[in-house]
Design brief:
The protein has 772 residues and is an alpha/beta fold. The chain is 43% helix and 12% strand.
Length: 772
């Protein structure tokens, strides 16, 4: 096909869409089902209506081919495990007895059965449920969900493309099941898995699918020759099937690299590539392999992970370059729109001028349609869209919001010494132990306590004017009093104030820093029914006044035990926001770091002797390619130290990380130079403790003994056994006892019982230590 005819054939599509609904209807229905207030049929009805609404929105916008199968009650990787029959043995009876309840048990666990491990989806803040596989795993096809959702879309008269996690990525994301040797490689199960995918593909073809998309984002990471060979074999075998739809293999989040030649020559009908994160690299590689003659190329030119409007002329230029490299060029977002909010037009608290700079899922769909139209019909067909786009881009570039001379002057004055503590850790540790007087295996929590319905109602009442500020603050004081009293009674050694005043660990700070914007309905799924509203980092950052000192000081006035000051670190402030794309991330991180440094200094001056600066996103934001990591880790660790290095030696700096693969960044954890780090470890059975020990990590650490993402209450003996495992890697004088993460999402009843068991476990294991 010529370039002209390739352009004329251009169509608009997306890989996925936000699941929750405009008012988080899915979250409310699922949580209502868990509490027994919503029936299974009612939940299914809500889900079906949300799917219909999403597809209709896309079709009305002009999207030519809607995705199916991307919708999920909890997680699309968990859905894939169900599709291929990879149900852990401990969950099989529950799934057989009641499929929906068994599904949620795999995600959340029950009091009797532990859930699947949860970790981050590549370098995003979305969490997936890790498949558990072993040499005895036998896969069986269960395409009921995928077929049913395809039929729903086809019944509406829509062109629909099922989207599945590809077999290679599925196996590369998996881990050995409990009891299986740690060196077992799930990828060895590929030949066992491919026939199951073949059966699912045949089912989808029979149901009316013309195309099926197989997502292989794992192939944008560094892959061994054996892994690339597995990808080649997978798509050779799937492509050779006769009873199948056309196959579109999709990658995103980075450049495809060595996997591009493998997929380009595979007997599949199309490839989807990311031309936002790695446009130049993917363009160059695509040209180097001779393009995709006879195949479909879906070009992800609209950023599916950030909320800034697209540069339409630049994207049209990229699309024009791609013409001639494929039989057909279609236009899409770079990845699923799951990672952005639904609709910017409903925001009422953002200035109209600034709102023009923003594109959520609904607006990105319109951008995709405009680009496809411009590619197919020429720029004269979208003159209005181009004019509005240029005006909005110019408005943003020239806005004083984006440039604060005082902030930039302060950044320019930073020296290397500003990011170094005044004394080495060994000297600091001695001063801190003398000052704090903590026992061996000191107990603490990560920061937040349950956000009760009463607390949420109080915030809503304040916003609505039903109570005044004084009334709201009395409620916050009462909650802090209860949290402090409970911790003292339970016997926790280092306390927290519970964060009742905070809506979110990033948004709370963003609302008090200049340069940030907050949304009212900008919800994005983090995991399951946990949705967050990432703030928008629009301009230069500074801190007008203290943000946490008042409530931390109040909590400290209620007890003689140390109360941690609680802050969110600079990398996490970036990772869990929508960041500006008009300057290097490292520059933005330093701005946030200096604002946090002011807060740390004020907390110390107010009497805080323990200050925690959380960085759960440090691993999450790690670049997917090894060659890009050194530069990232250099500015990321520097930003943390810049936030914390100004304190006295006797002030103990903590940090926290959770739900990620830490083995890749142990040196970076060391480079943070925090005195104490707490990490998720309960679901992964203390793996991180072993990784720290193998590295020779010299400071104090608290690998978690209580999985807070499950409603189950761990027994004291269960927590004690995890502690004993931790002690095999970390000596008692450097081991802390804590949950995996904050307790915001948990209820008070389970929190009380779990923390009481945690403290009992610490006392038991202390008693087992040899006398000094």
């Amino acid at each position: 096909m010529t370039s002209k005819s390739a352009a004329a054939a251009a169509r608009a599509t997306v890989y996925g869409y936000p699941r929750q609904g405009q008012h988080r209807e899915l979250k409310k229905a699922i949580e209502g089902y868990w509490k027994g207030r919503v029936t299974a049929d009612a939940l299914r009805g809500t889900a079906a209506e949300l799917r219909r609404s999403n597809w209709q929105q896309l079709a009305d916008a002009g999207i030519h081919e809607v995705p199916t199968g991307d919708f999920s009650y909890y997680d699309h990787v968990l859905d894939t495990s169900v599709m291929v029959g990879a149900i852990p043995e401990r969950h099989r009876d529950a799934v057989a007895a009641h499929a929906l309840n068994g599904y949620f048990a795999m995600a959340r666990g029950t009091q009797e059965v532990a859930p699947l491990e949860m970790t981050k989806w590549f370098d995003t803040n979305y969490h997936y449920l890790v498949p558990e596989l072993g040499p005895d795993t036998h896969f069986t096809a269960n395409s009921a969900k995928q077929v049913a959702e395809l039929k729903e879309a086809l019944a509406l008269g829509l062109a629909a493309r099922p989207v599945l996690v590809g077999p290679v990525t599925y196996l590369l994301l998996a881990k050995p099941a409990p009891g299986v040797a740690a060196d077992f490689e799930p990828l060895t199960l590929l030949d066992r898995l491919l026939p199951v995918y073949a059966e699912v593909l045949a089912d989808l073809r029979a149901a009316g699918a013309e195309w099926v998309q197989l997502d292989e984002p794992a192939l944008v990471q560094d892959r061994t020759p054996a892994e690339l060979d597995a990808a080649e074999r997978a798509y050779r075998d799937l492509g050779a099937l006769t009873d199948r739809p056309k196959l579109l293999v999709a990658s995103y989040f980075d450049r495809l690299g060595d996997a591009l030649p493998v997929l380009a020559k595979a007997p599949v009908e199309g490839l989807a590539l990311d031309f936002t994160e790695a446009a130049a690299a993917n363009l160059e590689a695509l040209a180097a392999v001779g393009g995709l003659p006879g195949k479909r190329l879906v070009a992800g030119v609209v950023n599916g992970r950030n909320i800034w409007i697209n540069d339409l002329p630049q994207s049209l230029s990229t699309l024009g370059t791609l013409l001639g490299l494929a039989d057909r060029v279609d236009v899409a977002a770079s990845c699923s729109l799951l990672h952005v909010p639904l609709d910017a037009s409903v925001e009422r608290d953002i200035e109209p001028q600034i709102l023009r700079w923003l594109a959520f899922a609904k607006q990105k769909s319109a951008e995709i349609v405009a680009l496809a139209k411009g590619l197919a019909q020429g720029t004269d067909a979208i003159t209005g869209e181009l004019a509005a786009n240029r005006a909005a881009l110019a408005s943003r570039a020239g806005s004083p919001i984006t440039h604060d001379p005082a902030v930039r002057a302060r950044i320019a004055a930073v020296t290397d010494a500003d990011a170094r503590r005044s004394q080495p850790y060994t000297e600091r540790a001695a001063a801190q132990r003398a000052h704090l007087g903590l026992p061996l295996l000191p107990t603490t929590t990560i920061g937040s306590f349950p956000q009760t319905d009463e607390l949420r109602a109080a915030r809503a009442d304040l916003r609505a004017g039903r109570i005044d500020t004084a009334g709201y603050e009395e409620r916050i004081k009462a909650e802090i009093q209860e949290v402090i009293s409970f911790q003292e009674t339970t016997g926790i050694d280092v306390l927290v104030h519970g964060e009742p005043e905070r809506n979110d660990m990033v948004q709370y700070f963003a609302e008090q820093l200049t340069g940030y914007l907050a949304t009212q309905r900008g919800w994005v799924q983090s995991y399951g029914t946990r949705y967050v509203r990432p703030p928008i980092l629009a301009g230069d950052i500074s801190r007008p006044e203290p943000m946490t000192v008042r409530w931390t000081t109040y909590a400290q006035s209620l007890t003689r035990r140390p109360v941690k000051g609680m802050l969110t670190g600079p990398v996490t402030m970036l990772a869990w926001s929508f960041v500006r794309d008009d300057q290097p991330l490292g520059d933005t991180a330093r701005q946030v770091a200096l604002a946090l440094r002011d807060e740390v200094d004020d907390l110390e001056a107010a009497g805080s002797s323990v200050i925690q600066v959380d960085e759960p996103a440090l691993r999450e934001t790690l670049p997917l390619r090894a060659t890009d990591r050194e530069a990232y880790l250099a500015w990321a660790t520097e930003a943390f130290r810049l936030s914390t290095a100004g304190v006295r030696p006797g002030t103990q700096i903590h940090t926290h990380m959770c739900y990620a693969e830490f083995g890749d960044i142990v040196q970076a954890i060391d480079d943070l130079d925090a005195d104490v780090i707490s990490l998720e470890a309960a679901r992964s059975h203390m793996q991180v403790a072993r990784e720290l020990a193998a590295h020779g990590y010299p400071r104090e650490a608290g690998p978690g003994v209580y999985d807070i993402h499950s409603p189950r209450v761990p027994s004291a003996e269960e927590a004690a056994e995890l502690l004993r495992t931790g002690l095999k890697a970390i000596p008692a004088e450097r081991l802390w006892v804590n949950p995996d993460c904050g307790l915001k999402t948990r209820g008070w009843a389970e929190t009380r019982a779990s923390l009481e068991n945690l403290v009992a476990a610490a006392r038991t294991v202390r008693g087992e230590l040899p006398a000094s």
